[in-house]
Design brief:
The complex is a heterodimer. By secondary structure, chain A is mostly beta strands. In chain A, 0% of the residues lie in helices and 50% in strands. In chain B, a hairpin with a 5-residue loop joins strand 4 and strand 5. The chains are: A mainly beta, B mainly beta. The interface between A and B is medium-sized, with 23 and 22 residues.
Chain lengths: 113, 108
């Protein structure tokens, strides 16, 4: 089954404690992306990757890091989380960036206290 | 002003009604997506279109590139159609610009 998986689905953490949200897709897509979703603001892109070892900033990259060492995996790293990073996070992939059908992970709800 | 505007922001209707959700954009695009976000949070792609009209079941999407406008219609609406509907446009470098979404509630 074609899918994008994210882990964990829910996470409560404290300010400053490094965390990683994993994302994996099984469709051999070259393009992967991370979004955060906040009430009233819609989806905002954090980082995206056009291919292995190629990553670029989206609209709200501050406080986040990513890596793309393998085609299937695109982890999101928060080195020092802060309460303003409390949000719902989605990973997505497609075969041709925005021009292809978008496949989303189930979301990770992060709370930073 | 946002580059992609959806209207209405919220819509409540009775079961069976014909639903229209609008998406207007101010940038040049090559195509546009409509997606559905379920109450549980999951997001699924409904349509991607660059011209004319597409239909899938009770859902119909139209786009007018010259007028910079797209609509999503739901015929014979049902409570299970309750969701947030999101429009996203594709700009030249294949990046997406997202609308804020329309929250639809269908009452039985």
């Amino acid at each position: 089954e074609a899918q994008v998986t994210q882990n964990p689905r829910y996470l409560i953490t404290v300010t400053g404690k490094k965390l990683t949200v994993t994302c994996s897709q099984n469709m051999n897509h070259e393009y992967m992306s991370w979004y955060r979703q906040d009430p009233g603001l819609g989806l905002r892109q954090i980082y995206y990757s056009m291919n292995v070892e190629v990553t670029d900033k989206g609209d709200v990259p501050e406080g986040y890091k990513v890596s793309r060492k393998e085609k299937r995996n695109f982890p999101l790293i928060l080195e020092s989380p802060s309460p303003n990073q409390t949000s719902l996070y989605f990973c997505a992939s497609s075969w041709l960036a925005g021009a292809g059908e978008q496949y989303f992970g189930p979301g990770t709800r992060l709370t930073v206290t | 002003k946002n580059e992609v505007e959806q209207s209405p922001q919220n819509l409540t209707a009775q079961e069976g009604e014909f639903i229209t959700i609008n998406c207007s954009y101010s940038v040049g695009i090559s195509a546009l997506h409509w997606l559905q976000q379920h109450p549980g949070g999951g997001i699924v792609s409904l349509f991607m279109l660059s011209s004319g009209k597409k239909k899938h079941g009770r859902l119909i999407a139209t786009i007018n590139i010259q007028e910079k406008h797209s609509s999503l219609h739901i015929t014979a609406s049902h409570p299970r159609d309750s969701a947030v509907y999101i429009c996203a446009v594709i700009r030249g470098n294949y990046q997406l610009i997202w609308g804020a979404g329309t929250k639809l509630i269908i009452k039985p």
